[in-house]
Amino acid sequence: MKILVPVKRVIDYNVKVRVKSDGSGVDLANVKMSMNPFDEIAVEEAVRLKEKGIATEVVAVSIGVAKSEDALRTALAMGADRAILITAADDVHTDIEPLAVAKLLDKVVEVEEPGLVIAGKQAIDNDMNATGQMLAALLGWGQATSASALEIADGTARVTREVDGGLQVVEVKLPAIVTCDLRLNEPRYASLPNIMKAKKKPLEKMTPADYGVDVTPRLELVKTDEPAARAAGQIVGSVDELISKLKEAGVA
Amino acid sequence: MTEITREAMDYDVVIVGAGPSGLSAAIRLKQIDPALEVVVLEKGSEVGAHILSGAVLDPVGLATLFPDWKDKGAPVTTEVKEDNFYMLSASGKVRIPNWPMPKLMSNHGNYIVSMGNVCRWLAEQAEELGVEIFPGMAASQIVWDTNEDGSPRVAGVVAGEFGREPDGSIGANYEPGLELRGKYVFFGEGVRGSLSKEVIAKFDLSAGKEPQKFGLGMKEIWEIDPAKHREGTVSHTMGWPLGKNAGGGSFIYHAENNQVFIGLVTHLNYENPHVFPYMEFQRLKHHPMIADLLEGGKRVAYGARAISEGGYQSLPKLSFPGGVLLGCSAGMVNVPRIKGNHNAMLSGIAAAEAAAGAIAAERAGDELTAYETAIHEGPVGKDLKPVRNVKPLWAKLGLMGSLAFGGLDMWTNSLFGFSFFGTLKHGKSDAEATGPADKFEPIDYPKPDGVLSFDRLTNVAFAATNHEESQPCHLKLAQADVPISVNLPKFDEPAQRYCPAGVYEVVEKDGKPEFVINFQNCVHCKTCDIKDPSQNITWTTPQGADGPNYPNM
């Protein structure tokens, strides 16, 4: 069985996100970017399935600017066999919307015919949490989202999901889409020897036009704002003082 | 501990550090002979992530590498248009005219740059030439070999080790990394590099030299009101707020995109252990001249890095069996020019030329003495030698005396090639210069207002630094009790104050003081390794990709 893993290059989770002065979005100029952490978990899960002999090939695909190749090289270093880069934007500030990504992935699935797509549940840059679901709808496949455990047996995927108040277990028939939550696994390090080897693994370069997909944005970004600054705290000397301060503030 | 086995890879030249010196060396090697196998290791998550510099760049090194650098699109575009020196008092300023300053201090023909972005660009050029660059891979150990006569030589480095547990044991995701072996190994780690320090000690490279001197540079990037922005303007200040407490001064550079690079350098030879360089920097911004400039603006990045200031007489021997020290791993900053990047690049070029010549002559693993000669007799030596007395005069005479005599000395040196002072000594190391706490008054610093000035931890978030928690602490104490048993009573443990990232704290636990190291906050400036009066702290590299993630620094 072949596994397809879509990965996105996003602003690194360590970076203090900053809104551009004109409010048109987040400033990404010379900012550290890396693979979306949920996608790393997806790659790790796919590679583990290959190591267990359940999968035969892991193909990583990324859609974005040409530099998304970096995220694919990381996936290859982690153990993916080959990669497809779909260059869909010139400017790092152009985000390709979930529907366009899902349409492109639909076409990639048509060509690659994987038995399973493992994706991150969402990208940490825009938190849409939509691509996996949209792809499932386009393909007419089953979907199991936010997986915290995954077992593949007898043509089905058995997926554990962390829901309010406990665990929910769902089974979907393969082929299917599974999206990963944080606790599914702990991704391995991309080791130096493997990064060296990854430079030699095959990477196919495509464009949305090759697949006949229009990636023009359909959503209008109205405004991007930074969260309001938190007001300074106060240290109070006694319970009485606390109560009187709370009363002053009108909360007690 | 179990024996670790590693794969090994052979290269012609292994370069530690993708800064201006290492990348220039890599580029030059490939320009001389494209068949040379060259690898560059960088501990930052990407090239530029750990680069912090003012910076006003003298493009001489860049022009040596690429005579057509302007056409190649180097991010070196903001030419210096105006160059001001101010002497500050708490609320006033006096402009020092440019005419009494020696020509070498003029910034005519220099550029305001983000050195991080220059390095990103240099890395692209290097990769196009076939250099292998591996960011996120920290070189953590030296690989030693033994010559036939039993003497040691550097044969390579270990890089890319990941996944040790906090106690040093091997974790579930452990990756041993690789041994990268080279005919020559170049250390371009910057100031107080951890492996460079080991090499300097092993081969006693500083024997007969003056101790290296340092400064701590802190920098913020501000986006300011376009109406107040004057692209290409360079200002330096001296005097307030450091005053008599410490040597140093500030820089204010108007870069592109309405950004201002503002920073304060504090010389680390200060005696008063109550000096709090970070708070000095914060109060600097409340000076009316600077407050007016920043008002309505936004701080977008923060960082800090130690600077070498010892100059010519502190340069260690640069070559040793199997490799060389580049740039500020040796210490090539020109103090009065407030610049070192040009020398870093020139040193990389000189080392590359020496190594390429040696490899062509089928040599390997020996000393590149041609590099040593090229530095002392070439452009780097010519840049550093005439200004060698400025820093010791500053330390001895204070600010005003050094302005007069240091200025005079630079004039006689640059006009007649001689000095009334000969070559002055630095004397004590910065750690030894620290005086006892009870001899000095504590300094009352104003509380940051959250608008122009910020508390340390808030600002550290703007360095985007991070360290995986489940790894050994990379800040090693030789003796665990020294901070509390010696440094606290004698020096009021200055680590609490000299660290620009708030890594070190003394907290009370069960009524007793306890020393805490928050290594996750570290911005890799190396100040602790330099300034700890007991010389008890050793900065080692954490896992690759950890540390700050500087944009546009």
UniProtKB/TrEMBL annotation, chain A:
Heterodimer of an alpha and a beta subunit. GO terms for molecular function: electron transfer activity. The electron transfer flavoprotein serves as a specific electron acceptor for other dehydrogenases. It transfers the electrons to the main respiratory chain via ETF-ubiquinone oxidoreductase (ETF dehydrogenase). Belongs to the ETF beta-subunit/FixA family. The keyword Transmembrane helix does not apply. GO terms for biological process: carboxylic acid catabolic process. Its cofactor is AMP. Keywords: Electron transport, Transport. It comes from Celeribacter halophilus. This is Electron transfer flavoprotein subunit beta. SUPFAM superfamilies: Adenine nucleotide alpha hydrolases-like. Residues 23-215 form the Electron transfer flavoprotein alpha/beta-subunit N-terminal domain. The keyword Transport applies.
UniProtKB/TrEMBL annotation, chain B:
Its cofactor is [4Fe-4S] cluster; FAD. Its EC number is 1.5.5.1. Accepts electrons from ETF and reduces ubiquinone. GO terms for cellular component: membrane. The lineage of its organism: Bacteria, Pseudomonadati, Pseudomonadota, Alphaproteobacteria, Rhodobacterales. Pfam families: ETFQO_UQ-bd, Fer4_ETF_QO, Thi4. InterPro entries: 4Fe4S_Fe-S-bd (IPR017896), ETF-QO (IPR040156), ETF-QO/FixC_UQ-bd (IPR049398), ETF-QO/FixX_C (IPR007859), FAD/NAD-bd_sf (IPR036188). The keyword DNA-binding does not apply. One of its GO terms (molecular function) is 4 iron, 4 sulfur cluster binding. Keywords: Electron transport, FAD, Flavoprotein, Iron, Iron-sulfur, Membrane, Metal-binding, Oxidoreductase, Transit peptide, Transport, Ubiquinone. This is Electron transfer flavoprotein-ubiquinone oxidoreductase. Residues 513-542 form the 4Fe-4S ferredoxin-type domain. It comes from Celeribacter halophilus. Signal peptide: none annotated. Binds 1 [4Fe-4S] cluster. PROSITE patterns: 4FE4S_FER_2 (PS51379). It is found in: Membrane. It catalyses: a ubiquinone + reduced [electron-transfer flavoprotein] = a ubiquinol + oxidized [electron-transfer flavoprotein] + H(+). It comes from the Bacteria. Gene3D superfamilies: 3.30.70.20, 3.30.9.90, FAD/NAD(P)-binding domain.
